[in-house]
Amino acid sequence: MIKDPPLLTIRRHFARPAPGHIAAFANVPTAHAVDALGGRGALDYRIKPLAPLSAVMVGTAITCHCGPADNLALFAALAAAKAGDVLVAASDSSRVTSISGDLLMGMARNRGIAGLVTDGLVRDLAGILAVGLPVYCTGLSPNSPARNGPGSVGLPVVIGGITVTSGDLIVADNNGVVGIPGGDIERTMEQLAEVRKAEAGLEAKVKAGLEVPDFIQKILASERVREIS
Question: What distance in Å separates the CA atoms of residue 53 and residue 172, rounded to the nearest whole number?
Answer without folding.
Answer: 9
